[in-house]
Design a protein that fits this description.
6% strand; mainly alpha; 2 strands; 112 residues; AhpD-like; two-stranded antiparallel ribbon
């Protein structure tokens, strides 16, 4: 899924933008659920982003993995914590997916 880059920041994937423009009610409901879920429970933002990274890896979602990698870093995750979260996917998702995710994360962290 292509991601638009402007001079200062990364924007949402083009297809996501087109979908939410076409179906604004669904986009609003999706956003409301995301905000509600983020506020439930004792996990801190860093931990939530590391978990979302793992889920994105398992689903094979490149841009989501990259987005949650950047967010985890922003929330204070070290490179070692990010790599551990990626490596934890190996037995469940397989070696090839883990190696791919490691590359996706490296790309996300070096594009800034």
């Amino acid at each position: 899924m292509p991601v638009r880059r402007n001079s200062k920041k990364l924007t949402l994937p083009t297809t996501f933008q087109q979908f939410t423009k076409r179906f604004p009610d669904l986009a609003a409901a999706h956003e409301a659920i995301a905000k509600s879920v983020d506020q439930i429970g004792p996990l801190d933002r860093k931990t939530c982003e590391l978990i979302k990274m793992g889920l994105s890896i398992g689903a094979g979602l490149v841009t989501a993995t990259q987005s949650h990698t950047r967010r985890a870093k922003k929330e204070g995750a070290s490179l070692e914590e990010i790599e551990q979260a990626i490596l934890l996917t190996m037995n469940t998702c397989g070696f090839p997916r883990t190696v791919a995710a490691w590359q996706w994360a490296r790309t996300a962290l070096t594009k800034r």
